[in-house]
Write a structure and sequence with these properties.
This protein is α+β, with helices and mostly antiparallel strands. The chain folds into four domains: about 20-40 and about 275-350, conserved putative lor/sdh protein from methanococcus maripaludis s2 fold; about 40-50 and about 195-275, Elongation Factor Tu (Ef-tu), domain 3, CATH 2.40.30; about 50-85 and about 165-190, OB fold (Dihydrolipoamide Acetyltransferase, E2P) (Beta Barrel); about 85-160, Helix Hairpins (Orthogonal Bundle). The protein contains four helices and 22 strands. The chain has helices at about 85-120, 125-160, 210-215, 335-350, and strands spanning about 30, 35-50, 50-55, 60-65, 75, 80-85, 160-165, 170-175, 180, 185-190, 195-205, 215-220, 225-230, 230-240, 245-250, 265-280, 285-290, 290-300, 305-310, 310-315, 320-325, 330. Helix 1 runs antiparallel to helix 2.
């Protein structure tokens, strides 16, 4: 309920009670004090996933199996899709055969070079024969390295027939069906991680200097709980149409079942712009009666009074007091019993 003043309610309502000390009252009291409060601005933001991607085919083949569908949770490293591998298996066997041949050629060239080298040291062969043997060995070594690389490439292409999830997340879209032929670059499946999220907001340019100075912001959940941002990322340019700066709130790693945040959602955010000393009254001391917001005050003259106040923000510590109370004044923390006690005291005094 948003309080406001009326002409009849603007004056403080004072109901005198007999003289007594705060320590003698049958209900709890508290002293109203100034507290350091955060000056913040609440604005809308949109939730984004830090990790969201589309997995594309890296080899040719036909889709044999699709193990996950939209809204399925996938663990990191899980096989999400399998392609036919007949062609890739044949390339592996061919590459392994070339490797065996290259290794045999290398062993032969190496043995020939060692024989020529020992004879050359005895000056029984010419320099040209020695150079030809060394060139043959170098060539065989190069062919062996090329064959080894060919095997590695063929095996890598074979590995691409099993599509692996790069991170844990939720499947957001499936682009292929069983039986479809795909080529390198064809989109297969899209997903997003719900563990790492961020929120993007548009901040008016007049607030940017204060926000850059404090660099603090929170996301306000529907439950009222808040999640503090680990860091803020400022885009170094303003939107010429709105004169606002884009700012990203980078959230800590979350347990999805706790906050209930999903990419694309609109959320409320609170950005810190500074600090200020404000008067705060405990929430349990405040009474809401129609358009009247009031508290029971224990006056220094040892009188109980029902006084109207004007409040601002509701904080974890209580309500911000805009008018009606002064620092050091004592209020009742149990308005119901305070009101009963006040009426009984008035009846006795009469």
């Amino acid at each position: 309920m948003k309080p406001f003043w009326t002409k009849t309610a603007a004056a403080t309502l004072l109901l005198a009670a007999p003289m007594l000390g705060a320590a003698d009252l049958p209900f709890r009291t508290a002293t109203v004090e100034r507290q350091t409060l955060t000056q913040e601005r609440v604005m809308d933001g949109r939730v984004e996933a830090v990790q969201q991607s589309t997995i594309s085919a890296q080899t040719s083949g036909r889709v044999l199996e699709v193990f996950y569908d939209v809204d399925d949770f996938v663990e990191q490293g899980a096989v999400v899709l399998r392609l036919s591998d007949t062609e890739q298996q044949a390339r592996v066997r061919q590459a392994e055969g070339s490797l065996r041949e290259a290794r045999a050629r290398f062993d032969e060239a190496n043995a020939e070079f060692e024989r020529i080298e020992s004879v050359f040291e005895q000056q029984l062969v010419s320099r040209s024969d020695f150079d030809r043997a060394r060139a043959s060995l170098d060539s065989a070594r190069a062919r062996l390295a090329s064959a080894q690389a060919g095997v590695a490439e063929a095996r890598e292409q074979l590995g691409y027939t099993e599509v692996i999830a790069p991170y844990p997340g939720i499947v957001t879209e499936r682009h292929v069906e069983v039986g479809e032929a795909v080529n390198p670059g064809s989109p297969l499946i899209s997903g997003t991680s719900l563990d790492r999220l961020r929120v993007e907001i548009s901040v008016p340019q007049r607030l940017i200097p204060s926000l850059r100075q404090h660099r603090e912001a929170e996301v306000i959940l529907d439950s009222g709980d808040r999640i503090g941002a680990e860091s803020l990322t400022f885009f170094p340019y303003a939107d010429p149409a709105t004169n606002t700066f884009r700012v990203r709130l980078n959230l800590p790693e979350l347990k999805q079942e706790a906050p209930g945040l999903f990419p694309g959602m609109f959320v409320k955010t609170a950005v810190k712009l500074g600090e200020d000393q404000r008067l705060v009254v405990p929430s349990e001391a405040v009474v809401f009666r129609s358009e009247v917001v009031a508290v029971y005050v224990i006056r220094p003259e040892q009188e109980i009074s029902f006084r109207q106040i004007r409040v601002g923000r509701e904080l974890p510590e209580g309500f911000e007091v805009l008018a009606g109370l002064r620092p050091g004044e004592i209020v009742a923390l149990d308005p119901v019993h305070a009101g009963i006690y006040l009426k009984e005291s008035q009846r006795v005094s009469q």
